[in-house]
């Protein structure tokens, strides 16, 4: 792992140069290295390069032409510009082992923030960019619960479910990793500048395999998605249409032998179709984070003070048995209906509901009140 260009070993430098061959599948370099039984530094020294080019078929010679010294220079300048920047190469001990299961693993990772996070157990959360309000709130709650249990939440910093997942993890006690489809010097989408900063400030990490100066291109996102699927123990799909990038990520995870989890939704909602299809294909149906822990055999960290939770619970339960609370539905319930059900004046009902709202049991919405889930 390197914090500045002065600290880069010749070995890592060689990996960076191989990685700079933007259009070459990394599998080609790795195959070449194993065929020649040498390391990247040796491969790039002029002597072995010359003997290799003599023996190699013409097709392999163009690999070397693809190396971009310009990109390498940009990478080193990027690294030196700020302290929380790091470059991790395929040969580093900090390189995440999980990524090595990929057919074409990235040879270089540009990291802003905490590089050690990449070694931690992670669960990916993915879903639609145009998610429903409910989907985003489920994603946020799930991410908070995962983070509180000591699991790093990994996503792609896109709009919709991704952003909700990162925000939920930041609300929890945990960390989050954003995998980008652009160079490390570009924030995409641009409106996520504050989110990007929040992730780094919370000792999370923003990572990418793309070199500085590389813009957002459509084909980068499937490439980015394979990293999200590979680096995580499992992938949780919150909302997805049938033909979507989200399902591609879920399928990649399954192909890599990772667990796929899906949250069911309404049969009337097109965003649930993808999740329901995944469940039919054998993804695990998830309604709370314990379903994920059961499957992954992770012991969640008990981070909360147990005693407090018990006290809170009994207090909440005495409220929950309350007739008035029982008269609030999970759908919007009008205030006069609630008052009528509780056989009390509207004013009194409103005063009690305000108390419930402060306890997080109900929430006021246009047209009345909604009981909150899990209460």
Automatic annotation (TrEMBL):
Source superkingdom: Bacteria
Domain called Smf/DprA SLOG: residue spans: 87-296
Signal peptide: none
Domain DprA winged helix: 321-368
UniProt-listed Gene3D superfamilies: 3.40.50.450, Winged helix-like DNA-binding domain superfamily/Winged helix DNA-binding domain (1.10.10.10)
Any one GO BP annotation for this protein: DNA-mediated transformation
Family: Belongs to the DprA/Smf family.
NCBIfam families listed in its UniProt record: dprA
Protein name: DNA-protecting protein DprA
Protein source organism: Alteromonas genovensis
Gene expressing this chain: dprA
């Amino acid at each position: 792992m390197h914090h500045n260009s002065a600290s880069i070993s010749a070995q890592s430098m060689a990996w960076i140069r191989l990685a700079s061959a933007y259009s070459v599948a990394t599998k080609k370099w790795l195959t070449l290295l194993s065929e020649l039984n040498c390391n990247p530094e040796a491969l790039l020294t002029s002597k072995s390069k010359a003997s290799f080019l003599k023996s190699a078929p013409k097709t392999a010679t163009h690999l070397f032409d693809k190396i971009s010294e310009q990109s390498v220079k940009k990478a080193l300048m990027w690294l030196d510009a700020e302290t929380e920047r790091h470059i991790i190469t395929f040969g580093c001990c900090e390189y995440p082992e999980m990524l090595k299961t990929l057919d074409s693993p990235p040879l270089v990772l540009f990291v802003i923030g905490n590089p050690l996070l990449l070694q931690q157990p992670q669960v990916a959360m993915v879903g639609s960019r145009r998610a429903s309000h409910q989907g985003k709130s489920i994603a946020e709650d799930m991410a908070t619960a995962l983070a509180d249990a000591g699991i790093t939440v990994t996503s792609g910093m896109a709009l919709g479910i991704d952003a909700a997942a990162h925000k939920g993890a930041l609300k929890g006690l945990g960390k989050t990793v954003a995998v980008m489809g652009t160079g490390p010097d570009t924030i995409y989408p641009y409106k996520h500048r504050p989110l990007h900063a929040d992730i780094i400030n919370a000792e999370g990490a923003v990572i990418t395999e793309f070199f500085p100066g590389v813009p957002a291109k459509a084909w980068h996102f499937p490439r980015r998605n394979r990293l999200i699927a590979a680096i995580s123990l499992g992938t949780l799909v919150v909302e997805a249409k049938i033909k979507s990038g989200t399902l591609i990520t879920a399928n990649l995870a399954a192909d890599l032998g990772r667990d796929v989890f899906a949250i069911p939704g309404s049969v009337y909602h097109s965003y649930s179709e993808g999740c329901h299809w995944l469940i039919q294909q054998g993804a695990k149906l998830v309604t709370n984070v314990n379903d994920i822990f059961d499957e992954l055999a992770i012991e969640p960290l008990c981070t909360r003070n147990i005693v407090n939770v018990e006290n809170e619970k009994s207090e909440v339960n005495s409220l929950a048995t309350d007739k008035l609370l029982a008269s609030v539905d999970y759908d919007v319930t009008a205030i006069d209906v609630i008052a009528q059900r509780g056989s009390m004046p509207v004013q009194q009902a409103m005063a009690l509901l305000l108390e419930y709202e402060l306890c997080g049991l109900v929430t006021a919405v246009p047209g009345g009140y909604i009981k909150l889930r899990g209460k």
